[in-house]
Design brief:
The complex is a heterodimer of chains A (224) and B (153).
Chain A: H1 14-42, H2 46-66, H3 71-74, H4 81-107, H5 122-145, H6 149-161, H7 167-186, H8 190-207, H9 210-213
Chain B: H1 6-34, E1 39-45, E2 49-56, E3 64-70, E4 73-80, E5 82-83, H2 85-89, E6 97-103, E7 110-122, E8 127-132, E9 137-141, E10 147-149
Classes of the chains: A mainly alpha (224), B alpha+beta (153).
Chain lengths: 224, 153
């Protein structure tokens, strides 16, 4: 049985709710600093980009330890992988079909993009994003707002916010954020979410024109 | 799930402080690399134009490229590499080759303002910025085309 932070509306005292929300804001701020501030001030210096990412990683690790959360609870597990995949199958297939339809409408071709070797690392990147989004932010959102639409919306808004100012990606990540957050609340399995995330991302990259998606660029990088 | 201790609050505050410091350091570092406060110089009106000197104290042996703008309009660009022994003797530079002269011709009679900017390159040539050297120079041009400095205007 999946361990869940809260099964109903949050009944935590206001300070605990505020703390959980503060954790979300703090992690999102680190991501925004990496995307916007570091890239605009220091270019693509990997060393400086690593600072906010390490700070966020340190906070998340410390928070998990403070709250006695195990990797199994967070979603690094195999027991509910198939159950989670079953929940994700339909929305993922629908998303891929919509992407193919858009690609066909725009360029009359399917999977015409060049396959790049960096796509092999996409599952790892997707797992990392899903861990931050659901393994951390979703769990804290459930603590603050309880399980259900409120916390799911908060997760999706944060996910979309981190993909601005790319408008199309912002909309798509909001929809993806809603689906992935809802599935995670039912079956917390990060591997299944990363698989779904990777499939959709590769379909996007191979089908939709890079011009339309601005090569999936977000933050300050979006402008060039 | 266990209720966290106050240490989590301390970690959140500490993280916020570190991120604020990071942004502050990045802002200052970026400002200094794009608009370094190392340029010193002066400009004055002569009968036929604007002349002066400029030194980059961070690289005192380099010759600085300067640009002349009159009434906000770009007029000319050149490298400040003329002899200015007085600048060397006054201790402003390491050698005397930091002078520049712009000849100002075909200006309409009346009051004008000249500004001399030092050109600075950063980011391996991806950025170029201009910095005002000295004060804006206000001058008048008479009917014969002769320039004169306007004092205290």
């Amino acid at each position: 049985m999946a361990a869940e932070p809260q099964n109903r509306e949050s009944s935590l005292p206001p300070t605990a709710t505020a703390l959980a929300l503060w954790e979300i804001v703090s992690v999102a701020t680190s991501c925004l600093i990496a995307e916007w501030v570091v890239l605009s001030f220091a270019g693509r210096s990997k060393l400086i980009i690593a600072i906010p990412i390490l700070l966020a990683g340190g906070l998340m690790a410390f928070s998990h330890r403070e709250r006695d959360e195990t990797l199994h609870e967070i979603g690094f597990r195999a027991d509910n992988f198939l159950a989670s995949c079953r929940l994700l199958l339909l929305p993922t297939a629908a998303a891929v079909l919509v992407i193919i339809a858009i690609g066909w409408f725009m360029s009359h071709s399917i999977f015409a993009g060049h396959f790049r070797t960096r796509y092999f690392s996409l599952p790892v990147w997707a797992l990392f994003q899903q861990y931050v989004l659901n393994g951390f932010i979703n769990r804290r959102a459930q603590l603050a707002l309880g399980k259900g639409p409120k916390s799911i919306s908060l997760v999706a808004v944060v996910f979309a916010l981190l993909h601005l100012p790319n408008p199309l990606l912002g909309v798509m990540t909001f929809i993806g954020g809603v689906i992935w957050a809802a599935v995670y609340q039912k079956q917390p399995n990060l591997f299944a979410l990363a698989l779904s995330h990777s499939v959709v991302s590769i379909a996007l990259a191979l089908t939709i024109s890079p011009n339309l998606l601005d090569s999936l660029r977000v933050g300050f990088k979006y402008f060039g | 799930m266990k209720t966290p201790s106050t240490s989590l609050v301390h970690v959140l505050i500490g993280k916020s402080i570190l991120e604020t410091l990071l942004i502050g350091v990045l802002a200052v570092f970026t400002f200094i690399s794009i608009l370094p406060p190392y340029f010193h110089g002066w400009g004055e009106v002569t009968d036929t134009g604007i002349s002066g000197w400029v030194v980059n104290n961070q690289a005192p042996w380099d010759r600085v490229e300067v640009q002349l703008f009159v009434d906000g309009i770009f007029m000319a660009s050149r490298v400040a590499n003329e002899s200015r022994r007085d600048v060397l003797l006054a201790g402003w530079s390491k050698d005397e080759w930091h002078g520049y002269t712009f000849t100002v011709t075909s200006m309409s009679a009346g009051l004008h303002e000249a500004r001399i900017y030092a050109l600075h390159e950063s980011g391996n040539g991806t950025r170029k910025t201009l910095q005002l050297v000295g004060d804006p120079i206000r001058f008048a041009v008479d009917a014969s085309g002769k320039l004169s400095h306007l004092l205290g205007v």
